[in-house]
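Why should sequence recovery work at all? Because a backbone constrains its sequence more than one might expect. Tight turns favour small or flexible residues, buried strands favour hydrophobic ones, and helices have their own preferences. The token representation captures these environments compactly. In the example below, the structure is given first.
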């Protein structure tokens, strides 16, 4: 999409275009399913959910049947290590081409998409779909880019995801970026402007996903206001005063809230494209190649409907006594370690609350509750060297997994799911607390990225459902 086309179709001013470019934003041209598509079957949850629950995805397949669906355009990560993964990727690419060629997916005029999502936990969570400039994003440790990862990116996880994107003509976003907009100047005002927008979908989401409405944002005044407000958030004098930091820190406008490895894969794919171009071709690609951008939903961290949930850990193929002994040996090297066990989860959590009330220095103690077959308990790490329990636990787990190649790990949403999986023979689950969403930006700015899988934006069923698509191949 060139600037002339944008000005002609949306009447957006040159100032708005320049402001969007300065903050790494571009107005997307989305692909949406044709009219009369069964939208309840079209939209499915992010592919990185329910990775230890194949029965969930089997049920989704039964619901979708032969109807057009984003299920046929994604690879649920529960299948990522299956022997037929290459065939699945090939089928996905073929389905993408088919949906474009037969008119299942139709190109829309340039415009943002404003979302209003209802879940079983919140009545409303607002979002704005846009495209983000990958030239202004980095997942590298210590990055000071405008768009930044909030959690550690596991490089080893990228190749299979890049492989999926390599020959794909379109992308489907489950990436959710966060902005720190306490005055609610960007997304929230759109709720009062929906009479100026075309409603493009209004649907109930399958598998307890709630309800979502989508509105096309094409009005030039609204677009100009979005550009101005985003630019203001990124002004150096406002940014440095807001967080109490000096100019050595790079401005952080968009923090990756969800889909960290999805956005990193888009970046890696774009870098691979650039690496194969001549200098002349690169100049053209930087100006017009659609893969330079990635589509994402932006949410204000101050949205009342955004709740940070913890992401728990479950180990598979373990010997319980061996894990406990390894924890004691590991943490006793630099911290005081103690362990308590119980017959039920209720007794365990009651004891944790009693421990907190009785402790005179609880702030320096990390409590790590766990569940295994016929056992609940918690470990107490005194004088922990990390600020977050997730970092304390993950440091140990990384070492343990490195030394025990047969042991596998998964990252789970929901206490009940951890319990249900953790009590099975050969498994062990760890429960982690949530972090304060209002401290996220300042923590990342001052301390850098958090340990991977530190927080979740809501429960699994509240994750983004795929609806919009976008071309990423010229």
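From this structural description, the recovered sequence reads:
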């Amino acid at each position: 999409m060139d600037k002339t086309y944008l000005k002609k179709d949306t009447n957006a001013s040159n100032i708005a275009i320049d402001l969007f470019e300065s903050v790494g934003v571009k107005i997307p041209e989305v692909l949406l399913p044709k009219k009369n598509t069964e939208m309840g079957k079209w939209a499915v949850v992010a592919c990185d959910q329910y990775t230890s629950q194949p029965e969930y995805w089997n049920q989704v397949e039964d619901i979708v049947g032969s109807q057009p669906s984003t299920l046929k355009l994604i690879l649920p990560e529960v299948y990522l290590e299956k022997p037929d993964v290459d065939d699945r990727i090939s089928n996905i690419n073929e389905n993408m081409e088919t949906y474009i060629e037969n008119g299942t997916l139709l190109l829309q005029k340039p415009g943002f998409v404003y979302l209003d999502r209802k879940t079983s936990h919140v009545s409303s969570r607002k979002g704005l779909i846009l495209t983000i400039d990958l030239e202004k994003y980095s997942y590298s440790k210590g990055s000071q880019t405008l768009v930044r990862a909030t959690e550690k990116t596991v490089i080893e996880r990228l190749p299979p995801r890049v492989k999926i994107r390599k020959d794909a003509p379109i992308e489907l976003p489950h990436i959710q970026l966060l902005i720190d907009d306490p005055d609610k100047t960007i997304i929230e005002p759109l709720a009062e402007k929906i009479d100026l927008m075309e409603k493009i979908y209004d649907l109930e989401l399958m598998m307890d996903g709630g309800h979502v409405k989508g509105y096309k944002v094409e009005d030039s005044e609204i677009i100009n206001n979005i550009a101005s407000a985003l630019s203001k958030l990124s002004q150096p004098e406002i940014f440095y005063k807001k967080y109490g930091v000096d100019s050595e820190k790079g401005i952080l406008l968009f923090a990756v809230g969800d889909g960290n490895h999805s956005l990193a894969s888009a970046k890696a794919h774009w870098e691979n494209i650039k690496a194969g171009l001549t200098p002349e071709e690169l100049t053209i690609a930087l100006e017009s190649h659609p893969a330079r951008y990635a589509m994402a939903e932006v949410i204000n961290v101050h949205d009342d409907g955004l709740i940070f949930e913890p992401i728990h850990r479950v180990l598979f193929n373990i010997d319980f006594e061996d894990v406990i002994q390894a924890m004691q040996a590991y943490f006793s090297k630099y911290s005081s370690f103690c362990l308590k066990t119980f017959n039920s989860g209720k007794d365990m959590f009651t004891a944790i609350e009693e421990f907190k009330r009785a402790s005179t220095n609880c702030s320096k103690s990390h409590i790590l509750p766990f569940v295994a077959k016929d056992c609940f308990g918690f470990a107490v790490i005194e004088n922990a060297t990390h600020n977050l329990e997730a970092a304390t636990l993950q440091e140990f787990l990384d070492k343990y997994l490195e030394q025990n190649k047969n042991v596998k790990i998964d990252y789970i949403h929901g206490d009940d799911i951890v319990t249900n999986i953790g009590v099975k023979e050969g498994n062990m689950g760890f429960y982690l607390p949530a972090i304060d969403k209002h401290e996220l930006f300042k923590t990342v700015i001052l301390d850098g990225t958090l340990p991977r899988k530190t927080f979740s934006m809501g429960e699994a069923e509240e994750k983004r459902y795929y609806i919009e698509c976008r071309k990423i191949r010229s």
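A few observations help interpret the result. The longest strand covers residues 125-133.
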